[in-house]
């Protein structure tokens, strides 16, 4: 995979792609040179506090049949953070994706999203049905939603989390340093319950060294709670408007709620669901099974 950059209106996204090119992508006719064949594009959208390398285990297998592009969301990996007064509202990711899609060539695009990336992919497919050939949603379906009765507490907690972030930022600046890359890797292993080998690509892209310490690249504002969450009716309306085929991939010990009737699967017009080994990062734990499901799924609509 090769490094790439996409210049959006207010921010530049970094990413990886399966073909080499020079320059920054600013329009479909910019220095990005796409291969002349008509293989479809798989556009990978990672989860919260992950990065494009979250999909590293899938790249070699899927590059045989697709052109691959994986981006770092704003404030993640090598992408720019949002402005200091921006706290990463969910709907802004959909705008980011829309700008990114405008920079891609005129060919079939399948979205592959994990967790946050899956939620963004689903909403985008609902709003722009003519731009998406299909969507693979890994451990994520409809947008996160909750009862309207939670709105006051949600707003109160969200504002409090920003205050805590500001106090930490004054004290720690760029965050607490870690003594080595290995320490950062082990911290993620504990959080995600994955092996060092499985997480090494993701952590390598998500950290940097400054002097004798290592730091996380992601914007620490990402940890602030949302001030608002959709009601169930809003999430159901969005999911039900997805016209393209959808494949939901879940980890056997992942989010159990996504298998339930209210999890969003039965709100889809044309959706199927499969279960593979692993938990929330099942695409890292069972990459071969995930690749096989993606290949079979996309072959039905081409």
Automatic annotation (TrEMBL):
A GO cellular component annotation in the UniProt record: membrane
GO MF annotation: an example: hydrolase activity
Keywords: Hydrolase
The keyword Hydrolase appears for this protein: yes
Domain AB hydrolase-1: 40-217
Gene3D superfamilies: alpha/beta hydrolase
Domain of life: Bacteria
Cell division listed as a keyword: no
Protein name: Hydrolase
